[in-house]
């Protein structure tokens, strides 16, 4: 996994780089602050972010938030030298997948990376499901609108309007929603007294 490191302490940064290599990952950076991390991620997007929270110019949470807003959301593991419950809450609100407190051993680092990657995959799958459900709802609305237009234009029943859309879709090898969109696009024609017998 390609992991971008952002850590302002050069000794810790070198240690993290060495550990990531030992765990079989490809470390990128390290960036010395959050702004440099954002710039590196823009140039060469990694698979995962490993960011110190407390850095100059832009802290790790703000850097992660900036990248997410730019469409560069990735699994995020944050590391900190401070055990602060408020910081944990801010991390969760920023979309952090794993939170590690210094000093970090290899097992904790490996577990944090695996956890972050797994949570990110689950989140992406959930996003895809929500997007699919939203699209299905939009498609359903378009089909309902098309049925309504056919009913108003021709005086046929709702089941007959739906059958016409189905028949047209089958005959033209189109999806129902594609036929429905064509009917909706012809709304002005239908409302002006023109017919649509699909």
Name the CATH superfamily assignment of the largest domain. Answer: Response regulator
Describe the largest sheet: 5 strands, parallel
CATH-level-2 architecture of the largest domain: 3-Layer(aba) Sandwich
Radius of gyration of CA atoms, rounded to a whole number? 26 Å
* Average predicted confidence as pLDDT: 87
CATH class of the largest domain: Alpha Beta
Q: Give the overall form.
A: elongated
Query: How many individual β-strands?
Result: 5
- SS strand fraction: 5-15%
What sequence of helices (H) and strands (E) makes up the elements?
Answer: EHEHEHEHEHHHH
CATH topology heading of the largest domain: Rossmann fold
Instruction: Give the number of helices.
Output: 8
Question: Can you tell me about this structure?
Answer:
By secondary structure, this protein is α/β, with parallel strands linked by helices. It folds into 2 domains: 2-104, Response regulator (Rossmann fold), CATH 3.40.50; 131-191, Arc Repressor Mutant, subunit A. 61% of the residues lie in helices and 13% in strands. The chain has 8 helices and 5 strands; from the N terminus they run E-H-E-H-E-H-E-H-E-H-H-H-H. The chain has helices spanning 10-22, 34-43, 60-69, 85-93, 106-154, 158-172, 176-185, 187-191, and strands at residues 2-6, 26-31, 48-52, 76-80, 98-101. Strands 2-1-3-4-5 form a 5-stranded parallel beta sheet, with helices on both faces. Helix 4 (85-93) links the parallel strand 4 and strand 5. Helix 6 packs across helix 7. The protein is elongated and about 80 Å long. This is Response regulator. The modification 4-aspartylphosphate is found at residue 52.
